Amino acid sequence: MIPKSSILLIEDEENIRSFIATTLKNQNYKITTAASGTEGLHLCASLCPDVVLLDLGLPDMDGIEVIKKLRTWTSTPIIVISARSHEQEKAKALDYGADDYITKPFGTVELLARIRTSLRHSSQMNAGSLQQVPVYRHKELVVDYEKHLVTLSGEMIHLTQIEFKLLSLLAQNSGKVLTYSFIMEKIWGPYVDNNNQILRVNMANIRRKIEKNPAAPEHVFTEIGIGYRMAEADQS
Ligand code: CA
Known about the structure:
Radius of gyration: 19 Å
Distance between the termini: 23 Å
Number of strands: 12
Helix content: 40-55%
Low-confidence stretches: none
Bound molecules: calcium ion
Number of helices: 8
Strand content: 15-25%
Order of helices and strands: EHEHEHEHEHEEEEHEHHEE
Oligomer: single chain
Strand order of the largest sheet: 2-1-3-4-5
Structural class: alpha/beta
Mean pLDDT: 92
Shape: globular
Largest sheet: 5 strands, parallel
């Protein structure tokens, strides 16, 4: 049996801590817990876990500070655990280098999916293979980065230059949420103003072209108040 990955959970609420710890133990993950930011930082340095689960509301320091400190020396995936309706906080966490977030209250299935996605991304990153995947496939949608081609059920979809760049950026980070500010900067450069209107308009156009029902998207999902997440590529 392949040894499962190690996970460090930094969370001060005991009931959430034990729920997550039990869930992950049952899945054979190696789990270590910390109840404060300071303890979490120490444990992360000594254990070098494969994934960090981080609550943003900690008693001794802001979770954002923990992210900033970790990102000075490690690229280990950080999944933020946050309360509902704290969109700005989540977006900030992502912009400071968290990889993903999960909103309380969450279920086991969602938690495990987030962890698997983060582990897959980091192992692809380490293998340097993330950039080499030439094609994104999800259901009937194909994005071919090199040929600059998007097809839906084999039919070519005409996208503008910006729309193609936008869709490619999301596809190359599929499964991950990308914040509005991250996308804006990547597509329009660092001096773009932070009005998201131009992004929303382009995204609406993309959806009209690639989604059967733009109101119930299958490929690009809106993370309200935060950004967009493209469906994880099919595993070939
Ligand atoms: Ca807390």
